[in-house]
Amino acid sequence: MENSKQNHLAEEGSSEALPSLIKAITANEVAGFDSVEEHQDFNRRLKSTLVHPLSTSIFGIEAAAMENENELSKPQRTHSVSISMPPSPVAAHLQNTNRVLFGDEETVLGNDSPSSAAAAVSLQTKQAKFYSQPMPKGCALNEAITSGTSSNLPVRNPRIDKLKDKRFDSFKTWSGRLERQLSNLRGKHRESEQEPQPQHRAEFETLPVDRYFDALEGPELDTLRASEEILLPEDKKWPFLLRFPISSFGICLGVSSQAIMWKALASSASTKFLHVSPDVNLVLWLISIALVLIVAFIYALKVIFYFEAVRREYYHPIRVNFFFAPWIALLFLALGVPPSVSQTLHASLWYILMTPILFLELKIYGQWMSGGQRRLSKVANPSNHLSVVGNFVGALLGATMGLKEGPIFFFAVGLAHYTVLFVTLYQRLPTNETLPKELHPVFFLFVAAPSVASMAWARIQGSFDYGSRIAYFIALFLYFSLAVRVNFFRGFRFSLAWWAYTFPMTGAAIATIRYSDVATSLVTKALTVVLCIVATLIVSALLVTTIIHAFVLRDLFPNDIAIAISERRPKTTRRWYHRRSGSSDTKVEEYLKYSNSDSKDSEGSTNSSHKQEMSGSLHKKVERHHTHDGPEP
Amino acid sequence: MGEQVHQSPISVVIDPLPIITSANPQEPVILAAKEAASDSILTRLHAGYFRICLSFGAQVLLWKTLNEHVNDHTNSIHNIFHTHTFPSTAFFLLYWLSLCTLILLSFLYILRCIFYLRLVKAEFLHHVGVNCLFLPWISWLLLLQAIPYTKNFPCRILWWIFVVPVVILDIKIYGQWFTTEKRFLSMVANPTSQLSVMGNLVGAWSATRMGWKESGVCMFSLGLAHYLVVFITLYQRLSGASRFPAMLRPAFFLFVAAPSTASLAWSSISGSFGVPCKMLFFLSLFLFTSLICRPTLFKKSMKRFNTAWWTYSFPLTFLALASAEYAREVKGVVASGLMLILSALSVFVFLGVMIVTAANTDTLLRGNDACLSLPGTKTTNN
């Protein structure tokens, strides 16, 4: 892979690469020299808005990388240079000639002072770094550098080994300074390193949600698109904390809901014939407590040490819903508490548990409502059910504890937002980008909300009345309509988030137990048994799979690509020609294409390249450019 | 047009109607020289001004409800304040003030309909203005409700007079939502659409106060069905934020007003503040909390005074009214405290907006009210 080749090249030291680079660049420079000049000013004007600090060693590496790229794309480049310039391919040409230009500059710098410090990172080079310059495809490191988040990269070439560790600095809390503080506190003597350049950003920009859509694909938005690059090296195993996603809390959800199910099986009247022992509930409950503690501890470490990564997860349109998972898991623990441990729980516990959910809700539902880039028509996906089901679980717990008004409050809020979400997902709006085209286990989340809502309503009302039954039958219908399509659920890569998709099945089983309490018959009893067996089997299968992945395959925690996407999409020339085929040529449009805000390039090229689409997408781009400046959610 | 006769010879040929704040650049604006020259209050008085009357009417109702609360001695908190009753004179003063404002504005608007029918038509065809056309009827219905004895004949006649236009507007507008392509709900939905829903709900509420249960249920079901559709569509934000001018952001508070009104309407239909009413009230409370946690949303609209600021007042008042009903049902410290806080907040906001309006009367009367962008010549595009 070219990517690894680049990195190896970088790691071995760019000094070897430099000599050959000089030769290569000169050849190209001559070819494109004339046409480069006139675009230089344009570049500079554009670049002045997109300044990012860099260091010379980076140039060295990049130069080395480009050397490889040069050879590969040389015919392409010279070809484009020789084309006469209508305004539209200018930008495309710009890219190619920029590469040459920068190679020239950087070669000079690299030659003169390969060991020059940050001082050598002059304004000239700052201007020279053109943000939308297309990076050579395989150069992940360069992309990371140009994105500017790795502003702490040291300048040294010889420090390539340090470079590896430093690459993760951008994700660490306060760019790694916290870690250094802690190690200083511990008294470890750290070798004096080049101080990170002072131009680190005071605050990290939030990634616009479009960026996630553009860069990622897949039902869980965790697969990198082919054209994208990430900030961290793909071939190296990242630190464990960086690989630990928030969706790991799904395990807690899955196991604690099982505890509730076995509690219901043991204690409910209609399942007495099964003679289930309450010990199962006790054991599962203890296991889930342990799991919650472990996962919470690890994630707390991640929050402390890699806060930037946590932020990026928060801005991920799917992962944000998993931020509800810890609190829902705690609610499940409270619901599943074995009778031998405690008969009744204090009401204040409910208030404590619901407060974080309330705050998260205010934030996220407000984002849906106030529009902007995270409006519901755009980001709706089945994982949003996790945001909504917390309300119903809270209502259920509150009603079980005997509270009256609080459960109704959360039930009302949950119901209103569930209706909106349900309709939106059913509509499968064309503007919706996150809904997987094929069936995926995430769809089982559809079953979660109605089943828990039916139980909550039954508790609030005191009996399993018509409202609860309606909700329960909806849940059952959704369950069966997904179950008969089980064939389509094959062929997906296992991920920890799958645990979160098991709790709806368990929830449906528990709701069936409650229903069979009220409408006792052979059918309902059989249904109870079947659903409970299915839920248990699925959880067991998932447990086995998890163990296999953890210990045998050792890829339970793969590199979390989704949080490492770059802020700018690398533009390739091929894409340009494809897009440029039908559009109008204006400088404004070009500027917008290169501009800082969200780009709908993927939408334009994936949907169609009709002229209307182009003007429409341009219009949207203008809009988005404005809305991006609007109130941030 | 006739208005030119009244103007001075020095007529500046610019569009006096407000700057186009609707960010839909694809709709061309044709300046009409004729209408540009007129400068009278009638051209500037659009239906949005009735927000003032609506706020007054809602305040009147709130004071009336709080009065009843104070008289209800089973309320624990008010036992402490038993000396502090709202004086009846203040209540009547407020009522007459509201009534006069409403009569004045209605009269002016009738004049506007007579002389500037084109402008009224433009309002009707605008996706925000059409919803503001419900405001006068809601204001009248609220004031009608505030009258102590409402089951007599003249009040019933008045009710019919005010509700029939609401129903006609309903039929026209709701029908357009799913039949007329240019005015599909997905295109025109904006937070002020909830005003149409509120029109139905207030009609239902006043119907049951009159003693007509069936009409009440009918209007309520109309309102609720369309509220469901509007709520979902608005939450989806299909067409994005660009079509809704930033000056009108206070209209987001209508998210708070609509469920509160529904809660009040259903409580009067069902006779008590049952679980559905509570749920609607809680939803309204949640949305209110959500909005006040986002002050940056309203930053742009606070830069310049416009009548949309009155939209801060009446949703809060409706919420306070619903909380009063809630506190009456659920007796307790928390509920009564909530009612007191919300009522106090609503009174403060009402007084605050009134003071700001008084300070900006020149903007209101002579300047251009920039909240509703209505180039009078948009009729040609529709």
Quick synopsis:
Chain A: Residues 190-201, 586-603 have a biased composition (Basic and acidic residues). The complex is a heterodimer of chains A (633) and B (382). Chain A has 633 residues and is mostly helical.
Kindly describe this structure.
The complex is a heterodimer of chains A (633) and B (382). Chain A has 633 residues and is mainly α. Chain A has 26 helices and two strands. Chain A has helices at residues 2-12, 17-47, 56-82, 87-112, 123-128, 140-146, 160-166, 177-185, 209-215, 240-243, 249-267, 278-305, 307-315, 325-335, 347-370, 376-379, 385-401, 405-427, 445-461, 466-483, 503-518, 522-552, 573-580, 587-594, 601-607, 611-629; strands at residues 216-217, 223-224. In chain A, helix 3 packs antiparallel against helix 4 and helix 14 (325-335) runs antiparallel to helix 15 (347-370). By secondary structure, chain B is mostly helical. Chain B contains 18 helices and no strands. The longest helix of chain B is centred in the first third of the chain and has 28 residues, at 88-115. Chain B is globular. Chains A and B meet through helix 15, helix 18 and helix 26 of A and helix 13 and helix 15 of B.
